[in-house]
Hints:
With 409 residues, this protein is an alpha/beta fold. It has helices at residues 28-36, 50-59, 76-82, 131-144, 171-175, 187-194, 202-234, 264-267, 290-299, 316-320, 397-408; strands at residues 3-9, 38-44, 86-91, 108-111, 152-158, 239-243, 249-250, 256-257, 268-274, 282-284, 288-289, 333-337, 343-347, 351-355, 376-380. α2 packs parallel to α9 (290-299) and α4 (131-144) packs parallel to α7 (202-234).
Amino acid sequence: PDTIVVYVLDALRADFVGHLGSDVGATPCIDRLAAEGGVFVDHFSVAPNTGPATKSLFTGFGFLRGRSIPDDVPTLAEAFTDLGYRTVSISSNPHLSRSFGLTRGFSDVLFEPIEEEFRAGGDREPTVNDSAERVHRAALEWLDGVGHEDRVFLYIHTLNPHNPYTPPEPFPSMFLESEGSTIDAGTGTLAAIRDLELAITPEDERRIREWYTAGVAYNDAELCAFVADLERRFGDDFLLVVTSDHGEELFDHRGVLHGYTLYDELLHVPLVMWWPARIPPVRIERTTGTLDLVAALQALTAADSTEVSEGSTTDLWAVLAGDGDTPLGGFLHFATAPGLRRAAMVRSSQWKLVLVPRPRFAWGMGKGRGRTHDAEYLFDLIADPEERINRAGVNALEVDWLRSRLQGW
């Protein structure tokens, strides 16, 4: 396609999206795109925070050490630039500013920050998080400067529903229903909860989830307006990929924010591929991951369409075309949490294994309120999909095989 838009809603959990099971009505725009395009219902990120997740999305590598992308690792933006595309990254997330070294290859990098108040109980109210509107405005202004004959690759990365969960009105009024709490959901408040500096009630927990939901709804509404503008410019002949870099902790395992666990609320994210001229409506149940999406995007730049990321196990284009699951190998999904140093995870269709070989007594996942202290976690995803029972020590052949594969990875 001459126009490709990869749109990332930062920290959007899959289970807050309507077509993935939510009944709160916060995502009518994403649900419309899903109904008209290809939707992957069991899609997973490779990390619970933006830096490593985005490095993988830009390179096709499951894990790259260091803060920036190494100079000898080619990027997706470079591939599109080499094909003659005008490429731009537009975001409010500091990781996507030039200073973090993740945007190599983009011809333009636009950073649209929001200001934040990080102090819990500070003198000022938490800053309104209007990232989506800021990013969309910058994207449309950038498109105004692009020639009609130019091919374009846009990477859009909003800072919604990411903290602070403080979207503009009317969305808080629409979704804040808990009457027993007046707690805000600014970054300072959330960090104080995480770090055991602020005690909260069950009503506070519900209200913080409502603040998060309001942020989801705000970004979804802004997405509707943005897509409408793209349709006015390009008709329906453009590829739009809507996904997230990671999820969010919302008290599922007691914790808040993100980056320090590998539970599914941090890794299960939406993926919709919308291109009415080429992709028919289809719902894909097969488990997929970030590296499969990278491979699908890389295929648009490769002379040989069989060239895929090394870690990809599913050809998304073949699945969307109805050619079956077309697995490229046995399904395994790996993820890592750099905030836990050497913590890493592998999952099969039934088992999820997390190894946290941290030194001395630093074993375990989580930070502050959500901290646990095991060196290994094993979950039976069929019997225990909410990951409540740690079955570490179960002697099963598949588990032993997963452990050896994870250690090798």
